[in-house]
Amino acid sequence: MTLEEKAAQTQAPFGSAVDVHTPPVTGWGNVTAGLSTLGLPPREAVHRANELQRKHVEDTRLGIPVLLAEEALIGFKVRDATTFPDAIAQAATWDPELIEEMARTIGTQMARLGVRQALSPLADVARDPRWGRVEETYGEEPYLVGTMATAFVRGLQNADARVPLIATLKHFLGYSASDGGRNTEPAQLGPRELREIHGVPFEMAIREGGARGVMPAYNAIDGVPLTGSKSYLTGLLREEFGFDGLVISDLAAVGQLHTKHGTAEDEAHALAQALRAGVDLNLDNKVSAEQIVEAVRSGVIDEADLDRAVSRVLLAKFRLGLFENPYAEAEPVPETFDSDQERALSRRIAEKSVILLRNEPVGDAPVLPLSPSLRTIAVIGPNADRPMGQLGDYSYQVLDSMTTRFHLAADPQARPEDVEDLAGRGSPDDARLMVESVPVVTFLEGIRRRAGDDVNVLYEPGCPVAGEDRSGFGAAVRAASAAEVAVVVVGDQSGINGFGTVGEGLDSTECALPGVQRELVEAVVATGTPTVVVLSHGRPYVLGWMADSVPAIVSSFFGGEEAGNAVASVLFGDVNPAGRLPIAMLRSAGAAPLPYWRTLQQPTYVDGSIGAVFPFGHGLSYTRFDYRDLEIESPQVPTDGVVRLSFTVVNVGDRAGDEVAQVYGRDVIARTARRGRTLVAFRRLHLDPGAATRVTAEVPTSMFALWDVDEGWVVEPGSIKFFVGGSSAAIRLRGEVTLTGKDHFPGPNRPLTSTVTAGPVASDGLASRQRRELGPVEPVTQDNTVREWLGHPVGGELLREALGGLDEDVLAPALDLTLRQMVAFSGGRFPLSLLDELLAKMNSRIGDGS
């Protein structure tokens, strides 16, 4: 290969800024967004893909095929491809098998158009709700993030045995831990947090998912930019994590080594630094092949570094079979990738992602599900009938509508209304669809379809998403007053660096409902009409005020094209909600960053709380589940062993539903400070009324390994506590194991995941048998100690729920106080009303035997 041909293979021009369909005589290594920016239906796009490929194969001297790449996090980002729920919504399903199925569907669509690389998924661990890109992540828990990312990688890369694909993990590493939640800002991470929190999901997706691509993050860690770090991209990623695939930079990130970070004196030295670090492809808005050639000839770039990058690009293409099969078969490509089957999958994911946050009684019964006798429903809110208000930032509709708008700004013949507000970041209220693609069912449409012709559905938007126009309040209040129930749909508008309230480059200081939406909700609630708030959003909110005033709250993280039908199914009770929060909703944005295990400890502020209004893993159901009979196979397990624990989950309600059983662990004493509670296993279960299932979790002790800067991964002997329940705070069962023997050094190839199995158990008479085994239960009173309450078969569960799942180690100083004293000495944290509420609930449960 000539120097020019080698330089060309490291180039990845971005399609909206470069005419990628007119390649140079040396071709390119990769083309990103070359099809999405055409705005063509699949049958036309495949011909353009093949023509671009032909120009590389037939019109260049070496005939090296080009690697086509597109975004794919929430669907193949081209026109007429299914728009699935956002990544944070996918995580809310707690169903990795379902996400693997979705990724297979996306991969199949990619393969049909000849696109071989997906710039997805994110393996970032969300730490700060202020960060706008939380919506693109799988949440705040490393194990949940890693499980979902691994499922996505497996599904996409194995979608078609005849057409290998590359899933690209991003953003390596610590991108989500930026200072203040500000996008691309530095992250201040030590080596332990880097590996134990942020590195684990990448390890899981590489070692267990087989991810073939990685994208470095924009940011720097302790002053070292990831894109230019050999220590991270070669030492950690390749040598320690075992990655042997393709590294592609983020858009324009190589140039930022000069322009942003100042670690390179000019663009040529930035290219040298990135190649030396381990970057193989330079994704950019411009082409830098000639600059690479000049830099090699002048000695700025070592040709050996260039050769190493080129060899990896060529190896990736050989592994994909591109040299043998560079073209896509055009004939089988359908008119649309959004078939009935694919829409049904999008709806199923959306339905499983809906989270019932709160459902308190109004009168004799909870507000949800909605009564079939209703004849008038008011649907209110700025996101009730806005397709753009339910789509994630990397959906084709959102991103390419913005791209279209920016293109129009440079067109002197464009209409002024199409390009208004482009001088700044753009108002979220100006965001609108400017591209053709798949139909999007809004919440209003979904509710009207499900309610039927016999129900009068009133609609008023009430206010804009982000503006302060209150002129619609009066109409909204009148609609609510005239209805038997009001459904208020509020939330976000997703965008990228503009035209949004959340998304890439759209960070927040408050994590509050944008604009005057809170005032709209309060005005509707003040009418006295029973109110349901539906959140269509991309970030967790501070919702203490809403939890104190609104009887029913539903979270629909951006639910994609079928969000309207999915939420309507939940509201009317056709679907029993079972989504669970993948990131907590805090009481104060000022407390962030705040991992969920910290929310379960004592407060540290004089003017606020570190607690969560709705904790990690939280979600309600229209039925009720009981946890029973925790058994741990052995109280002592060697440090290189496996902990096996089993428990029973029973549906004690009167309708079928799903429960997400969650197992948390805690290393009590260690050489380094350990997390107070960490997820080690989970399983989504479906149970009919009265049915029971026995869940068995096999947890490798290596999941409790800590990182020692001198000795590497270490599993120490000592006590491990286990917590089992329906959320990080709703713990129903507790157990303990002692790890025995010497320190175990599992090395980088340590087991990273647990195995969970579930099978039905005989449920005939199960509940009554449990009650008989308990025998007569005497109630405890306000004058019993906290220790006695926690040990009580009924009072213990109620007190733990009331205390928000506080770790009992935190409660140790209060264990010998009476319940009355604990409340009196809490400084107002626990209200006096807690005493009467606990006694009433306990007497009720003892009375009905539940």
TrEMBL record:
State the InterPro entries in the record. Cellulose_Degrad_GH3, Fn3-like, GH, Glyco_hydro_3_C, Glyco_hydro_3_C_sf, Glyco_hydro_3_N, Glyco_hydro_3_N_sf, Ig-like_fold
Read off the Pfam families from this record: Fn3-like (PF14310), Glyco_hydro_3 (PF00933), Glyco_hydro_3_C (PF01915)
Q: Name any one GO molecular function.
A: beta-glucosidase activity
Entry keyword set: Glycosidase, Hydrolase
GO biological process entries: glucan catabolic process
PANTHER family named among the record's database cross-references: BETA-XYLOSIDASE (PTHR30620:SF123), PERIPLASMIC BETA-GLUCOSIDASE-RELATED (PTHR30620)
Which species expresses this protein natively? Thermocatellispora tengchongensis
**For this protein, what is the EC number?**
3.2.1.21
Keyword Nucleotide-binding listed? The answer is: no
Protein's name in the database: Beta-glucosidase
Q: Where is the Fibronectin type III-like domain?
A: 659-728
> What enzyme category does the UniProt record give?
hydrolase
Could you confirm whether the keyword Hydrolase appears in this record?
A: yes
